[in-house]
Give the backbone structure.
Amino acid sequence: MLNEINQAKKVLLGNRKKGYTLPTNNNLYPAQWNWDSGFIALGYSHFNLKYAFDEINTLLEGQWKDGMVPHILFHDLNTNYYPNHSVWNCGNKIKSSGITQPPVLAIILKRILDKNIIKDKEKIKSIIKKVKKYHQWLMRYRDPKNSGLVSILHPWESGYDNSPLWDEPLKSIKIEKNLKYKRGDNKVVNPDFRPLDIDYDRYVTIKNHLRKNKYNPKKLYETSMFNVVDVGFNSIFLKANKDLLYLLKKFNLEHNEIEKYVLKSENKIEKLYDKKTKRFVNYDLKNKKKITVPSITNYFILFADLKNKLINKEIIQTLKKHNTKEKFFFSSIKPNYTSYEEKRYWRGPVWINCNWIIYQGLKDKDKKFAQMVRSKTIDLVKKNGFYEYFNTKTGKAYGAKNFSWTASLFLDLILEKKFN
């Protein structure tokens, strides 16, 4: 076990740049990603607290003046990555993308502070205030009607870019004429594992529309070509708001707005629950349609720790049927679903961050099942390495090797008993 722990640390240190860490050490992702950095900071916290806070602080250095934390920060401008900094053409102190990603920072920060004594309280307060400003941005601009649920305005904002969840909303996108761009991802990794060209055309069309509108958050909620209330994103946001609320109270910071929003979200998110199928469903606001794709991310609701014990119980029972014949879990999409693909990115394979999120949500609700998820996840990585994603039937590894969040979350799972 010690050997694997050292290997995981080596992956992180091997991907580290000055103050931040790349998702992998090849050309696939040559920048800093938002939720990757959150997970990476958690991994570092087990052996190098300075690096953990460097990761968080560097990410927050790229925060926009209005509060948004972008999904990509381009510290190195000499890359062949697409879309690169010039394509987005935005950023505050650091060149960045013009969209965000699942807001895991408050969750990670609370976990790090729960396990470590930090002497410099003022530095922590400064981080908490920035995270609060980010949450306020999401509440103000992604839920302008104050409904309790936030929207994503691009599939990339979900973090699970080409999930079948987005197939229907994307069908209504009219692809821009004479699109010109060069993908780099399918040159680095087998194209069979990556999003299709037609999906990429749609992503770029949406991105171009956002850019034409100068990423103006006041306008884009109404005018974006894509507007979806995603269960996974909202579950993470609800959990993050609960953890932020705890931190604001602990450090005697103003918390009324966040407290009110938590109560509203808790109540509203239950309306996405389908009592017949015992599943949570997304809602496409743009096209006014439910999205009933059986994605593993719909079970992130367990992570949100709803007070409704009956819903939690029913969701766990449904989750246990998500992978019945497969040796490894959880597949990103239920394998008997028509759009399931065994090898392609977010359309079937197992992702360690999803397993980690679900495990955290199960721990206090079904200990036996939680421990099974934990041990199966650890075994999958031990047998197949620190890769980006894995085949749910064979365990075979795909995508980038030396993948930072796989190494980080493996460390967190394996070292958990030491700290809990």
User: Anything to note?
Assistant: Residues 235 and 301 are 5 Å apart (CA to CA). DSSP finds 17 helices and eleven strands in the chain. The domain at 2-419 is CATH 1.50.10.10 (Glycosyltransferase).
